[in-house]
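Hallway conversation turned thread

IA: we were arguing at lunch whether anyone had actually written out JAB1/MPN/MOV34 metalloenzyme domain-containing protein end to end. Turns out nobody had. So, for the record, here is the sequence (232 residues) and right after it the structure tokens. Reply here if something looks off.
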Amino acid sequence: MAYSVRLSGTVLSSLLYECANSKIDIEGFLLGVLSYKTTLTNDDSSEQAYERREDFIIIHGYQILKEKPYDNQGNINKTLVQAQQKDLTSIVGYFKFRRQTDVSLSVRDQLWMQSYSRNIPHGCIAIISSTLSNGLTDKSTHSYEFAFWDMKSADTRLPIDITNMTESTLGYKNFMSNTPYKLSEESSNFALATISPSSLIIKQYDSMYQQSIQALRAATHRFSLKRAEFHG
């Protein structure tokens, strides 16, 4: 199953801010849910529409770790993971920030990916790097690069969708929320991961539409009364 990574510009800028202001290289968990959306698609070769499914890793936030949850061979430390993040269902990936390096996976990264995948069923890994923009002449300006990989395949780079920057809400029936869900006591991230949020977004837009129509009717009624008084 091929995933796409979705995160908001706010989450991304916050993470890059933490990287920029850290005195050492940092790493930690990416938190969020799995979700999907289905659309009806037509192609030129057939008049019949078919259903197309897209799967997403939606990142709502991150958790910077004080201690790495794996050893030098990349083996996961389950006790340490659970001590730092009790809700394992909210973990959808891992990030590593390294200065002055290429955005690529090291041997240790790949060993960690294998161990992660054996214990946490889904996820991605992000490598973030910063370099001086103008070499040694300007040490105050840095450029950042990052890439995401599927945790189960070091050869599979995942496409990234930074929401609120490339997506229009005009096609609201295909719009997918990137905001965290409100959980009830009976809810869980696992349950939400199997539900497409599209219906929730449609209900919100329909409610806004109904409120707008009611406000327009009320304004029209008031205008009619004022007009009748004026001509009376």
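OS: looked through it. The longest strand covers residues 46-64.
IA: good, adding that to the notes. Residues 35 and 112 are 24 Å apart (CA to CA).
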